[in-house]
Amino acid sequence: MFGPLLTDLYQLTMLQAYFDRGMNQSASFEFFVRKLPAQRNFLMAAGLEQVLEFLGGLRFSTEELDWLASTERFKPEFLQSLQELRFTGDVWAMAEGTVFFPDEPILRVTAPLREAQLVESRVINLLNYETMVASKAARCVLAAPNRLLVDFGLRRAHAGEAGLLSARASYLAGFSGTATVLAGMRFGIPLYGTMAHSYVQAHDDEAQAFEDFACSQPGNATLLIDTYDTEAAAHKVVRLAAKLAQRDIGIQAVRIDSGDLAVHSRRVRDILDQGGCTAVRIFASGNLDEYQLRDLLDAGSPIDGFGVGTRMNTSADVPFLDCAYKLTEYAGVPRRKRSEGKATWPGRKQVVRRLDAGGQLSGDVLALQGDEPGGAALLQPVMIEGRRSLAAPGLEASRDLARRQLAALPESLRALESAAHYPVEVSAQLQAMARWVDSRTLEVGARAEPGRA
Known about the structure:
alpha/beta; nicotinate phosphoribosyltransferase; TIM Barrel; seven-stranded antiparallel sheet; six-stranded parallel sheet
């Protein structure tokens, strides 16, 4: 768990300025994505649990405060005020696994200004990353339905926390499990593993390597067969299977990690079947993404499962989201940013979802909190006065929600190709509030301008 210094400097300099002016009334900030990347028809919310853990543990240590003092950037009385800082606010959020669309807040923080401001950088950091990975993983799930999908991405993830959280986000989105052991311990995610080419190379004989591994792991014998010659290795597996059967040891699967996976999988399937190894599955890996999964399955490749790593854990085609955490209300007054291309909607908002007769998503409404039209309200209170208001649903429950959300997507949004934008309506009341905020801002600005009445 990182502390409050994992932040941008301007969060602390703003807190100093707020402190100097005595500004600490209630503020609301909302996290949302401004627009969908060209390669995405929807996004999937993830990372809420890590945000709530961060907020629940927010506090400055003596060491951190001493270091801040040593920078000579901050006044002693301000640093002293940070000693007792805790998060005491409210959080409303979409449940993890919910699909969402541009301009829809998936999280709202309402708290004294300095608390709500301080947490901005870490909240964005967590929600952006896990949502980005979950959205990529969900596309893999849609491309390869009913296939074993395993997160293989730790070694090329952007440092350890990313590897751990991407294992969580991908499992939430529908992956079957992960190869990352700590994710199994920390989150209860099923673990899957095979062997490396180095294991085969360390043996003088490939067949002996297979036999040694199968005897060592009799309940988890997945053999990597493309170190030298894939088809020749498949023949060795057939001969070994007969030998091991006499000792009641089975081979669960073979793994192919290189070459033309479609061609090799068909050849290997034929060799295994002709050798009586019809129960041995084929598992493939090697820089895969949703497009390759779709193409392999469309080609009829007899592959039972896939290890998906680098391209999913880094969301290679969409390595960031155009997301923001913006002030929408302060001191009881709605606030709005009007920057060109980055304007925001004011006030505390709710996202209302409507379904058609078949239970599929038909459109959302972005409305003011407390002034919602009919439909399902997606933002729910998850933390009140700094304490959780609901028990953590658990990763399995979030995973089940994600499955139901994907099933409720219209067919066009389930496709990998770009589809027509999903309708998100802005309520008339919210539009009216935006006009009021704009007029108020202009009036206040005119009164403050020198030389103006």
